[in-house]
TrEMBL record:
Keyword vocabulary terms for this entry: Signal
Short name of one Pfam family: GFO_IDH_MocA
Highest taxon, organism lineage: Bacteria
Protein name: Gfo/Idh/MocA family oxidoreductase
Location of the Gfo/Idh/MocA-like oxidoreductase N-terminal domain: 6-136
Lineage, highest ranks first: Bacteria, Pseudomonadati, Pseudomonadota, Gammaproteobacteria, Alteromonadales
Length: 386
């Protein structure tokens, strides 16, 4: 495979932006990707200051994403960007992605993919009409022990899945004073975040993780979303009952007002032969539980049987790998996918284990179905797409 670095452009992520810096760290961690261009802010002065900080050629720092795609497309193929990383608030994800695809550039977007489901379906159409790749940074799928859990379920070690419990609790929006933070302001603004705050921001991660690891799909749900802090119009807490396509049931708990919680993402999957439990706060551990056998603690780097898990590790056992490394695994796989595409090989998202447009659409559908179900008295609602 070609060893030349994949060239990345970035939209958003100016100095002081949390997720932009995370994306840049993840992209450069394995040395496969080079950030060469960007439109980091709608404020050209701030954008240029960010380019200087990052050592990017000032001529490749653009005043708008439209300008970036137009000017980069004029460069020789071995100089222009290969893909764009989108790290803006939700309402800009779709127009940037669509513009990039129409200009012939691959896209790796922060989640959720778009502002609403209709936009996600339009994005799918744009991809079908192009030769571009699309990835979505559902970061938690990048953890080695999550990949190990997925493989063990695929191999039938748990038997038939009976129940899934996934919880994602945070406390950073527990009070009205927390709304003054920059990250909070746009997430609580329907014009920028969409119809949901908590479900769209972290609940969608939980839903994606449940489907990714179990191999099942949500087919129906019952939702109760709340506005706990007075004055908010978007949800900051929620509980969703789930039904999966093997007729098993699940529970999804999500909250941004769980005072004292940091980033508490937990997954438990119960089969008729065994069960698995994983926590993002202790990501190198995976618990395997059986009915008539001792509970087993599986540790990253120690006797794992999953090739996907082994390939996601960078250090020997006992050297913790966490959020940044999991994030980088999405970037590594996307870079390999682009290299394969350039070489004329098959470059499907499933082959390279990159969340793609299917996950984007299912994520937006989960958000809209959960919000709609929460407003109804009927218990169960079919999971609809389109």
């Amino acid at each position: 495979m070609n060893n030349a670095k994949i060239r990345m452009g970035m939209v958003g992520g100016a100095q002081g932006a949390f997720i932009g810096a995370i994306h840049r760290i993840a992209a450069r961690l394995d040395g496969l990707i080079e950030l060469v261009a960007g439109s980091f802010s709608s404020d050209p002065t701030r954008s240029q200051a960010t380019a200087v900080m990052l050592g990017i050629n000032p001529t490749r720092c653009y005043d708008s994403y439209q300008q970036m795609f137009s000017e980069e497309a004029k460069l020789p193929a071995d100089q222009r960007i290969d893909f764009v990383a989108i790290v803006t608030p939700n309402h800009l994800h779709f127009p940037i992605a669509k513009c990039a695809i129409e200009a012939g550039f691959h896209v790796l977007s922060d989640k959720p993919a778009t502002l609403n489901l209709a936009q996600a379906l339009l994005l799918e159409k744009a991809l079908q009409d192009s030769d571009c790749l699309y990835g979505l940074t559902h970061t938690y799928t990048g953890y080695p022990m999550i990949k190990e859990a997925r493989q063990r379920i695929t191999d039938g070690e748990l038997g038939t899945i009976r129940k899934i419990i996934v919880e994602y609790s945070q406390g950073w929006l527990a009070t009205s004073e927390d709304e003054n933070a920059k990250q909070a302001k746009w997430r609580l603004d329907a014009d920028k975040a969409g119809i949901s705050c908590c479900i769209a921001d972290i609940g969608v991660h939980a839903a994606n993780l449940a489907e990714y690891v179990s191999g099942l799909e949500i087919t129906a749900l019952c939702a109760d979303l709340n506005h706990v802090v007075a004055g908010r119009t978007l949800d900051d807490d929620g509980t969703v009952l789930l039904r999966f396509n093997n007729d098993s049931k699940g529970v999804l708990l999500t909250s941004q007002v769980a005072l004292g919680e940091e980033n508490n993402l937990n997954l438990r999957i119960y089969g008729d032969q065994a069960s698995l439990e994983w926590s993002q706060m202790e990501p190198n551990s995976l618990w395997l539980k059986s009915h008539n056998a001792p509970t087993t603690l599986l540790r990253a780097g120690v006797g794992l049987k999953s090739t996907a898990a082994q390939n996601s590790l960078r250090t020997p056992a006992g050297h913790p790998e966490g959020y940044l490394e999991a994030f980088a695994n999405i970037y590594v796989n996307f870079a390999k996918q682009i290299h394969a595409k350039k070489a004329g090989y098959s470059a499907s998202n499933s082959k390279f284990d990159v969340p793609g447009i299917k996950e984007a659409i299912r994520g937006m559908a989960f958000i809209e179905n959960a919000v709609a179900a929460s407003s109804k008295d009927t218990k169960w609602h079919p999971f609809k797409i389109g």
